[in-house]
């Protein structure tokens, strides 16, 4: 399997209206279009006639019309040349689907499970897209450890002086890596704390599962009452997909949800959702800014001085190579990478188990693909 063989969310549904739109994924340039009856098409964004970008064309009925000589293309890739009706040209097509308010594509004909997001009972915060100037592995690294949150994030995460108190546990199966972090919440503005219903001295839990077809993480973020240990306040569920655009460019697609209904009293719910969307946007932008500043963007981990928060990086490398790229190890897989200081501080409860499915919110949906 290769990268393009997995379902990736490449465009918001509401960005595809009557005009075709060009997107990139894993070195492929793809034109998406919506026929007048609403059916979706995804073709190579290059006319087989003389190489025009089909994304500069227009939709007429069920056909995408090339802007250069007017050849007409169906969603199945069957072409017609108005000037040479006997011709039967073919364009390369991709499988395309629409779910969770996004357009998803993969290589035509290959079998791939569709990532299924459990969001029943959750309320949409937003669907966001950001671009990071770094390879997919290096971007995923940022999203699979919390040690950067005090210095990189604006609000979401742990306090700078208390990272040693944060417990981090990693569990893994052949198909997934589960990371669970719990520690003191960093100081928040009073208004945010009140809006989310977060008690003083609450503990913040940032727990996620990474899966690799395609590469994506599903985060559950919530707070615990410092006295009872019970959940307190609102919660977030955010699915983040990593789309490789090129060797050093990765699109980060965040599908964010919250436990807060928009109709919560006096418009506070709607305000909460808008603020949460802005917060997710700010935090991912800050992550992207940090990634742009890396002096070394090589995905290999060998020789790096990794700490106790970096265990998931090594595990993810191996699964990216095997599941996502269909390779057996290879450069950047992390084989043999030294991982130092894995031990959590005294008093914490490190768990690093192998086997058994991690609990979580994402599962393979065999109904798709
Ligand atoms: S290049 Fe598209 S019709 Fe000629
Ligand atoms: Fe981050």
TrEMBL record:
Domain Rieske: start-end pairs: 7-105
Keywords in alphabetical order: 2Fe-2S, Iron, Iron-sulfur, Metal-binding, Oxidoreductase
Hydrolase keyword on record: no
Domain of life: Bacteria
Keyword Nucleotide-binding: no
GO molecular function: 2 iron, 2 sulfur cluster binding; iron ion binding; oxidoreductase activity
SUPFAM superfamilies the UniProt entry points to: Bet v1-like, ISP domain
One Pfam family here: Rieske
Region (Disordered): 326-369
Name used for this protein in its record: (2Fe-2S)-binding protein
Lineage: Bacteria, Pseudomonadati, Myxococcota, Polyangia, Polyangiales
